[in-house]
Amino acid sequence: MSKILGLKSFSISATFLLGISIVYMLDTIYPHGVFKPFQAFVLPTAATAAAFFDLLGYRTILTFPVKYMDSKLTSLTVIGNGGKSASVAIAWACAGVHSLLLYVLIILVFFKRIDASVLRKTIYFVVGLFGTYFVNVLRIFSIVLVMLKYGRDAGYTFHDIYGELFFFTWIFLYIALIAVIQRFMLVERVRNILRKIGLLLKTAQSKIISRFKESETQN
């Protein structure tokens, strides 16, 4: 029993490690975006990042498909006002598709450990899913922007080191936010219960006093 409780205590961490293992195994077996089911998510993510660049006044060129070995990638080229450009070919691992998978695994395990209604869990799930998607968009946007401002080598360094921190930071903060909301709601529920108990006690006290006064009057 103690071993089972110990496993439950580290269920989120174990799920996180399992998810990472599965994702990196797929990326190793099917490198460079060959795994087509995941590669299908890249185009909308790259298109959203391109839209952000368009809003900031950059000129963008989105190309699909770009043939690379056995895969079909999405290419994003961003051109600045001075004519300087940066171009990347995006595979599913680079687009953060793995973070969507990890998010689903982690959040479902986390939901088993919180006391919330189905509606509230659905809201948490949908909000977190959109949040994870836009974190992936921000990651691509940041990598290309660094590459555009500081060169290709800086962009690759950002991709390999800092880019991976986007999702980890996001999922930690989001789970912490849900925990705070749930704890606040629990405190409010306890307060409401205590308030109701207090009202019931006051009502009972008033009835007792009223009956006591009636009995004295009759005597």
Reconstruct the topology from this structure.
Layout (H helix, E strand, L loop, with lengths): L1 H8 L1 H19 L6 H4 L2 H14 L3 E10 L2 E9 L5 E6 L6 H15 L6 H33 L1 H11 L2 H54 L1
Structure description:
- The chain is mainly α.
- It has one domain.
- 72% of the residues lie in helices and 11% in strands.
- It contains 8 helices and 3 strands, in the order H-H-H-H-E-E-E-H-H-H-H.
- It has helices at 2-9, 11-29, 36-39, 42-55, 97-111, 118-150, 152-162, 165-218; strands at residues 59-68, 71-79, 85-90.
- A 3-stranded antiparallel sheet has the order 1-2-3.
- The longest helix has 54 residues, at 165-218.
- The protein is elongated.
- The termini are far apart.
- 23% of the residues are buried.
The overall pLDDT average reads 78
Q: What would you call the structural class?
A: mainly alpha
Tally of discrete structural domains? 1
What is the C-alpha radius of gyration, as a whole number of Å? 27 Å
Sum up the overall morphology in one term.
elongated
Number of helical regions: 8
Task: Give, in spatial order, the strands making up the sheet with the most strands.
Answer: 1-2-3
- CA-CA gap between termini: 65 Å
Order of SSEs? HHHHEEEHHHH
Poorly predicted regions are none
Largest sheet entry: 3 strands, antiparallel
